[in-house]
Amino acid sequence: MSPEVFIGIIGCIVLLILLASSMPVGFAMAIVGTIGMAVINGNIHSALSMGVNEFFDTFSNPSFIVIPLFVLMGQISFHAGISKRLFNSAYRWLGHLHGGMAMATVGACTIFGAICGSGPATAATMASVAIPEMKRYKYSMELASGAVAAGGSLGMLIPPSVVFIVYGIMTQQSIGKLFIAGIIPGIMIAILFCLSIYFNCKRKPELGPACPKSSWKERFISLKDITETLILFVVVLGGMFGGFFSPTSAAGIGAAGSIIIALCRKQLTFKTFKKAVGETIRTSCMVLTIVAGAGVLSRFLATSEITTSMADWIVHLTLPSWCIMTGIILFFLIAGCFIDALALILLTIPIFENVIPTLGYDMIWFGVMVVIVTQMGVITPPVGVNAYVVSGIQRDISLQTVFKGSMPFLLMLIVAAAILMVFPQIALWLPGVVN
Amino acid sequence: MNKIIDIYTKILKKVIEILAIISGLALILIVVVMCYDVLVDKLANKPIAGLNDIIKILGCISMGFALPYVTACKGHIAIEYFFQKLWHTGRLVVDTIVRSAAIIFFIIIAYWSFVKGTKIYSTHECFSTLFSGHIPIFWLYYIIGISTAITALTILHNLIHPRKELIRL
Questions:
Q1: How far apart, in whole angstroms, are the C-alpha atoms of residue B45 and residue B146?
Q2: Using CA atoms, how far apart are residues A434 and A427, in angstroms rounded to an integer?
Q3: Percent of chain A, pLDDT > 90?
Q4: Dihedrals φ, ψ of A280, to 5°?
Q5: Could you state, in order of their start, the residue ranges of all structural domains in chain B?
Q6: Is the CB of A24 inside 8 Å of chain B's CB atoms?
Q7: B33 chain-A contacts, CB cut-off 8 A
Q8: What is the largest CA-CA distance in chain A?
Q9: In this predicted structure, what is the pLDDT of residue A64?
Q10: pLDDT tens sequence across A75-90
Q11: How far is CA A174 from CA A166, A344, A429, B93, in A?
């Protein structure tokens, strides 16, 4: 073992210790990366210079500016009450079915995820909008809270997804392709969630009683309330995929469009606008700090040659590539239960970006797979963020109830991951067509 | 002693809030610039000259000045699971070590940002596409320096008051 690799291993151990000590993920990665570089190069000045440059380059990188702009679009839509209108519309169409309101929640989460891009934000919104309604119609709280927590996780997969943006930039993959690749798996998972709700409620009707049926007129009228949001979504993503705008311009147009829509609907006060901007800079800076930290760390890991050594070791395992891939997916599944999805992806990208193409898998497909697998982490104990959010907002629903209610949806996510593993074309077909 | 800490907290809070306002304004300016660029590009086929550099500057101001705010709100992602399993004294010790390490790191990064900025100032490096290359770059490093220095002070506040956020959302 070369001294560089040894230093790399020590660095990884220190990083794990710092992470377990609850040091912010971005800080831990930046500290270990800077000190590691100083030790390997024997030059503290160049290591510090690299640390400063990484923060400067990340904060001023025009590609990353797309993150605050999309987050702002989601925040404005959130504060303008779009979630309530989405839920009402979905309820008009699906409410009369067994478990229809839970399905409406999943549907609303899918569309809201298309604007918002943040799982916990989607779960928080729907928890305050959908759960009181489901309580009113005597839905099982396990089903209701599980549907909200799991539905909220769809925001990570449906474009524009912050995780995809960061993954795309870090692995030098097209963000547009990643966004498109997430659409069919996202819709597939939403359908699987709805099927799970439907069959569970068919078996045990007391879980989700059917609500009064809405007339066709009511259903179409309900669509009117969400038209401008759907138009905005089509303009932003259609403009980007159609080559009319760059991702940054599309995000800027989206943010401005959401502000205009909210102003026209008279649902944007100065107070809510200030709140939305505050939440946007908070979320975006948190993400970019992790990205900057990951940048410093990955330079250290690359210099220590630990990434190439590990990649070599994995590739030379005398196992079929699908076996290795299953192992990698299982690793993400377990680690995702403890670490935030974005942080986990950034921590592991330096290693896996060398391994995946060598195993014969597509990096776009892998991005989608990783997001689906880490999506499981947000609804499973011990640190399922969405479950905490739902339980935190609806205080009479225990965390245990949310986790229990999420189990059927977790099963569906596993089914979706297995389907995608066997049929990678599900994720890769649409990017190929649009290309 | 308590009085000094109170004054320290008040001043720090005010500074962070001012930086957060600048950060928010820079973000809104990015939205305006992006929309204006799309309009003039699509309608008059005249995109803004030096757009990339404008976004770089605004992005650096927006995200740089947001760093102390995120730290003050305790908005950074951390893995709390194992830490919460520790006994009380253990948590206190680990927390002190971790925060002290972060303070030292950010102070060094702040100092080095100023050093780097000053070095760039002496070379007269400018943005190539803005105002015929007359806008200097060095001050953006100073922004990173200010931001990381105040972040260090914010972490110091968090060390003194481990259970309290400096700014509540």
A1: 39
A2: 12
A3: 32
A4: -65, -50
A5: 2-160
A6: yes
A7: 252
A8: 74
A9: 86
A10: 888 787 777 788 888 8
A11: 11, 20, 15, 45
Region A251-270: mean pLDDT is 89
Size of interface A-B (CB pairs under 8 A): 179
Residue A58 C-alpha, separation from nearest chain B C-alpha, in angstroms:
8
At A47-70, the pLDDT tens digits run: 999 999 999 999 998 888 888 998
Beta bridge partners of A392: none
B151 neighbors B71 (Cβ within 8 angstroms): yes
- Pick the closest to residue A211 from A126, A112, A104, A77 (CA basis): A104
ipTM value > 0.90: yes
Of B59, B76, B108, B117, the residue nearest A58 (C-alpha)? B59
Window 61-90 of B: residues touching A by CB (8 A cutoff) are: 62-64, 66-67, 69-70, 73, 75-83
- Distance, CA of A43 to CA of A125 (rounded, Å): 49
Residue B13 touches chain A, beta carbons under 8 Å: no
**A365-388 burial code (b ≥16 CB/10 A, e <16):** bbbbbbbbbbbbbbbbeebbbbbb
* Binary contact (B169, A279; C-beta < 8 A): yes
pTM of the model: 0.84
Q: Do B31 and A343 touch (CB under 8 A)?
A: no
Is A56 in Cβ contact with B60 (below 8 Å)? yes
Q: Where does chain B show beta strands of DSSP type E?
A: none
Q: How far apart are CA A133 and CA A418, in angstroms?
A: 34
DSSP assignment of A11-43, as one string?
HHHHHHHHHHTT--HHHHHHHHHHHHHHHHHT-
